[in-house]
């Protein structure tokens, strides 16, 4: 790769909807434009996370593995990628090593060609087995280095952890992941060299959310300092609390003398499709935001903000948003400064809602809170507050977990335990991680339909939409001297 070439990693199908649409993007919406996305020239397209699997099953009644196969098939020239969190996947529970390997094997079998191994507490060496397992399956390996503003997460800490990743995991790429949109251009100028110092010759990428409006500037600074891959979305799934706009980034990098390795015309078509989809489905359209200095203290990822607001609205607690956010900030220190990203963001959010609604902090605590505080998720960046640890340990379920160790059954053991010896690995994995009734609904819904209108082809979309109207006997479209009439014969368009 030439030194001025900048590659693009697409987050339009994964992080964009997670940040702005509460993950509500259907497979048909993706499939309609996937062949055009294949023409963009992306280094990879991020497609699957644990949250996206939940949405497939719960909301769309889709088989997530069919989603992966269909989208991957529609983009034969572009690698799709999936993520795995360590040590928790699925519903944010810590799982045996055999289940983590099953997760990787199933997504690789569904067509993914790269994976991102996520460990956000800084215990990277513990993922060396998963890294080697991924390589044996032929997957490219990427490791995100999550940015946070705490007394622990200094530039020196990032240099040390970047070197740990490079030496113990030997990934194909590493990227700075600013999920909370905390970076400023000034901090980017010290952070990027610190990470580059630790990773040596491994390519560096950059991923930042636009919560404060500063991310586009940080991207350009990161590229100037040596990052050569940028994680972006096309509008309307860019900006706001999502990542930077691919269109804006392509233009600015070109003006600065870099060579963006993407097809601008194809990017514009993909953007037009999702703009059409956003308006059709009543989804938010990401827009640049004004600078908000409070974000540095709040430190919440885009997906956390949208999902926490939705969670509060569903429970009639939307007027207590500030109280919940304030409690999360206190919790971050008490919990040893875990970055406020999945799964810790969700665990802290639920605990904060309980603290505020019950009226006594930690009077009630889910198993995930207890297991994190007792060290089941790994060693946190700093020690846990002893008063919190004492209170949690005194709860009935806290006592149950005090001397508990994670069992390590084999996949065959789990299959026998479930009492479904003949099911596929994919179905087994879903049933191990998600509620059975939702898995049943997703797997029994039938094949996913490829019938969403092409938003980048307005005339074709109009005809498709009109043809579906049951009360229309014919459709006539005229433009620039061209006349097209569709008539319904025997209930079908002819």
The CATH fourth-level homologous superfamily of the largest domain: Aldolase class I
Tell me, what's the shape? Answer: globular
Q: What is the tally of helical segments?
A: 22
End-to-end separation in angstroms reads 51 Å
**Uncertain residue ranges:** none
Mean pLDDT equals 91
Describe this structure as you would to a colleague:
The structure is a single chain. The protein is an alpha/beta fold. The chain has four domains: 5-281, TIM Barrel, CATH 3.20.20.70; 300-401, Conserved carboxylase domain (Cyclin A, domain 1); 411-443, no CATH class; 458-493, no CATH class. The protein has 22 helices and 14 strands. The chain has helices at 15-20, 27-37, 50-58, 64-74, 97-109, 128-136, 155-169, 185-199, 215-225, 246-255, 264-281, 295-298, 302-314, 321-334, 344-358, 367-373, 386-394, 396-401, 411-418, 425-433, 436-443, 458-467, and strands spanning 5-10, 44-48, 80-85, 88-89, 93-94, 114-118, 140-146, 173-178, 204-208, 229-232, 259-260, 474-479, 482-489, 492-493. Helix 7 runs parallel beside helix 8, helix 8 packs parallel to helix 9 and helix 14 crosses helix 15. The mean pLDDT is 91.
């Amino acid at each position: 790769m030439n030194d001025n070439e900048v590659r693009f990693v697409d987050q339009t199908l994964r992080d964009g909807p997670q940040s702005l649409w509460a993950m509500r993007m259907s497979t048909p919406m993706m499939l309609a434009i996937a062949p055009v996305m294949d023409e963009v020239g992306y280094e990879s397209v991020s497609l699957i996370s644990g949250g996206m699997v939940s949405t497939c099953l719960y909301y769309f009644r889709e088989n997530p593995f069919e989603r992966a196969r269909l989208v991957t098939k529609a983009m034969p020239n572009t690698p799709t990628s999936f993520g795995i969190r360590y040590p928790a996947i699925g519903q944010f529970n810590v799982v045996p090593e055999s289940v983590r390997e099953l997760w990787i094997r199933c997504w690789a079998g569904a067509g993914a060609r790269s994976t991102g191994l996520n460990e956000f507490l800084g215990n990277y060496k513990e993922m060396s087995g998963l890294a080697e397992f991924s390589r044996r399956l032929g997957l490219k390996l990427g490791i995100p280095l999550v940015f946070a503003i705490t007394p622990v997460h200094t530039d020196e800490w990032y240099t040390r952890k970047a070197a740990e990743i490079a030496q113990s995991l030997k990934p194909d790429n590493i990227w700075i992941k600013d999920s909370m949109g905390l970076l400023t251009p000034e901090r980017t100028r010290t952070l990027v060299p610190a990470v580059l110092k630790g990773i040596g010759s491994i390519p560096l990428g950059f991923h930042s959310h636009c919560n404060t409006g500063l991310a586009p500037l940080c991207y350009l600074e990161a590229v100037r300092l040596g990052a050569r891959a940028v994680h972006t979305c096309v509008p309307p799934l860019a900006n706001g609390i999502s990542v930077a706009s691919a269109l804006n980034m392509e233009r600015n990098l070109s003006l600065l003398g870099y060579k963006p390795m993407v097809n601008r015309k194809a990017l514009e078509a993909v953007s037009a499709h999702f703009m059409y989809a956003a308006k059709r489905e009543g989804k938010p359209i990401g827009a640049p935001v004004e600078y908000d200095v409070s974000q540095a203290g709040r430190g919440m990822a885009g997906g956390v903000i949208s999902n926490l607001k939705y969670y509060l609205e569903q429970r009639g607690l939307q007027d207590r948003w500030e109280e919940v956010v304030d409690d999360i900030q206190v919790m971050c220190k008490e919990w040893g400064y875990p970055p406020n990203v999945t799964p810790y963001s969700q665990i802290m959010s639920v605990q904060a809602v309980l603290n505020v609604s019950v009226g006594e902090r930690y009077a009630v605590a889910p198993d995930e809170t207890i297991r994190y505080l007792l060290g089941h998720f790994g060693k946190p960046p700093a020690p846990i507050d002893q008063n919190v640890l004492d209170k949690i340990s005194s709860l009935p379920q806290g006592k149950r977990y005090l001397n508990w160790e994670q069992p390590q059954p084999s996949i065959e053991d789990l299959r026998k335990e479930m009492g479904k010896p003949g099911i596929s690995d994919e179905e087994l994995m879903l049933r191990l991680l998600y509620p059975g009734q939702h898995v049943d609904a997703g797997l029994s819904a039938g094949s996913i339909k490829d019938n969403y209108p092409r938003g980048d082809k307005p005339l074709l979309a109009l005809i498709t939409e009109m043809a579906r109207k049951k009360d229309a006997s014919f459709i006539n479209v005229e433009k620039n001297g061209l006349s097209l009439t569709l008539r319904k014969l025997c209930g079908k368009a002819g």
